[in-house]
């Protein structure tokens, strides 16, 4: 079971890398914000779906990286479905030493610890976020199914799921435009971008491109240009942007 998860993680990382590198080269600096967001979300979805496809021309089993990983697993005595040519190579280099199993156990343990650690960190962040929504609240108001919290402290405006947080000073200076800006994030379901990104990062926590893609997704937000909103533009740190 763990060998299948590890192999799936490698295939998922290959898909993400092959799709994200062209984006970095061609689209990263472009200002097509909505289009770029859809491209980034598609890359995340495809990195989860394509490794599960059994369509021959879409299979990743012919990729050298995948074959090398399969060969290492077979050499460790781990049952995994491979192409015939990989099986031949494995039979010529196979060894039944117990140290090989201990290596696989160590790798599996590190992988599981990484997944659990990232999951716990994200859950802790969400818990702190939920607690922070109501901490230091002066008042709250419901508008179009969204709850707006006005805080007394110096908190940057942000939105999460169907909640908006704004501090009293920003609300007095440009409250309506800030609320509309964050409403746009909520209507665009940007919080679910974070959920999808977290799923991929849990699977590929060892892949640095996952975190680079996350930065691209968070910074891919249409900048506001009106004069009344310039004061808060640099303070907006939206968790789900």
Describe the structure.
- This protein is α+β, with helices and mostly antiparallel strands and 241 residues long.
- It contains 9 helices and 4 strands, in the order αααααββββαααα.
- The chain has one domain.
- Helix content is 63%, strand content 9%.
- A hairpin with a 2-residue loop joins β3 (158-160) and β4 (163-167).
- α1 runs antiparallel to α3 and α5 packs antiparallel against α7.
- It starts with a helix and ends in an 8-residue tail after the last helix.
- 25% of the residues are buried.
- Mean pLDDT is 78; it is low at 85-97 and 223-241.
Percent in strands: 5-15%
Taking the alpha carbons of the first and last residues, their distance comes to 36 Å
Radius of gyration of CA atoms, rounded to a whole number: 23 Å
- Total domains, how many? 1
The helix-strand sequence is HHHHHEEEEHHHH
Large-scale geometry: elongated
Largest sheet: 4 strands, mixed
Mean pLDDT: 78
**In terms of per-residue confidence, which ranges show pLDDT below 50 for 5 or more consecutive residues?**
85-97, 223-241
Enumerate how many helices there are, as a single number.
9
The total strand number stands at 4
Q: Which strand order does the major sheet show?
A: 1-2-4-3
Helix content: 55-70%
Structural class computed from helices and strand pairing: alpha+beta
